[in-house]
UniProtKB/TrEMBL annotation:
Organism, scientific name: Undibacterium arcticum
Protein's UniProt keywords contain DNA-binding: yes
Glycosyltransferase among keywords: no
Residue span, HTH lysR-type domain: 12-65
Stored InterPro entries: LysR-type_TF (IPR050389), LysR_HTH_N (IPR000847), LysR_subst-bd (IPR005119), WH-like_DNA-bd_sf (IPR036388), WH_DNA-bd_sf (IPR036390)
Classification via Pfam families: HTH_1, LysR_substrate
The protein's name in its UniProt record: LysR family transcriptional regulator
Keywords, comma-separated and alphabetical: DNA-binding, Transcription, Transcription regulation
Length: 307
């Protein structure tokens, strides 16, 4: 059903306010930088919409009717609100950003990855707050980005969704990590040894897809023996120290733990492609000044990191 209010628009409201303030069609036209005929036509339409003359002739100017006098304050407020809606969003200074950011990631790069990002964000935006969301099989990160439950994702999937914005962070070599006394490593570590060994795996982020390592092996027609599957990376090092399991991962993650634990990094006997890490975000936050600043902070934190 078409309403009377459907005939109103921002232009007509501006005409009405200008005529009311100038008390003259000609002066209102000059103020709006419009032909007088355009303002007169607009006023005619307004009189029909409100079913009231709105202005009548006085001795030296146009005089508002009682109806117009009653409406003027509300109309002026609506016109100002409409104009305000079209003003470009101001870009706040980073120190003035007071917003809660939501970042989805895994602890798969290094123990310092998340702390480095948070430290940089708080340094640049001290009034902001941050929530880091761990990914799991039942976590729909695409829906979370679309609804705003997440502002940003750190990912390393082989084929990220095409509808999301992507910014490449870095690539990392894939190696194997095992305890130093692991008998599997005696006498070398061949492809046959790799496939015959017992492996430690992680739940893939997407329940319907293989992880990066197993997906690549499947493309080659190969399959490893994943004996143990964990939900989190932070349990990996201590389990490796106490078992003969092999863990295939990126070099940055392995390097942190091999410094302090009896673990060794072994070149992978299978030439896996480098693991690509990147940021993902939805178009809903793409133009947000605060979210843009947040993404720049994340990129900067990773660039500064020596992990």
């Amino acid at each position: 059903m078409k309403l009377t209010s459907d005939q109103l628009d921002g232009f007509l409201l501006r005409v009405l306010v200008a005529v009311a303030e100038e008390e003259s069609v000609s002066r209102a036209a000059a103020k709006l930088n419009l032909p007088q005929s355009t303002v007169s036509a607009g006023l005619t339409r307004l009189r029909t919409i409100f079913n009231d003359p709105l202005f009548v002739r006085g001795r030296n100017s146009m005089v508002p009717t009682a109806r117009m006098a009653e409406l003027y304050g509300r109309i002026r407020s609506v016109a100002a609100d409409l104009e305000g809606l079209c003003v470009p969003e101001a870009t706040p200074a980073p120190a003035d950003i007071n917003r809660e950011f939501h970042i989805g990631t895994l602890d798969y790069i290094s123990p310092r990855f998340i702390p480095d990002i948070i430290a940089r964000l708080l340094q640049k935006m001290p009034r902001a707050s941050i929530q880091v969301h761990a990914l799991s099989l039942d976590f729909d990160y695409q829906e979370s980005l679309e609804t705003g439950a997440l502002d940003l994702m750190v990912g390393n999937w082989g084929s990220p969704p095409e509808h999301l914005h992507l910014y490449p962070l870095f690539e990392d070599e894939i190696i194997c990590l095992a305890r130093q006394s692991n008998p599997v490593l005696k006498g070398g570590f061949s492809q046959a040894d790799y496939l015959a060994a017992d492996h430690l795996g992680l739940f893939p982020v997407n329940a319907n897809q293989l992880g990066v390592i197993d997906a690549y092996l499947a493309q080659m027609g190969l399959r490893r023996n994943v004996k143990v599957v964990l939900p989190y990376f932070n349990n990996v090092p201590n389990l490796l120290v106490q078992s003969d399991l092999i863990f295939t991962t990126c070099k940055r993650f392995a390097g942190e733990y091999s410094k302090d634990l009896p673990l060794q990094i072994i070149p992978s006997p299978i030439s896996f492609p480098a693991m690509r890490f990147y940021l993902l975000w939805h178009d809903r936050t793409h133009r947000s000044p605060a979210c843009r600043e947040m993404r720049e902070c994340v990129v900067d934190a990773i660039a500064r990191s020596d992990t």
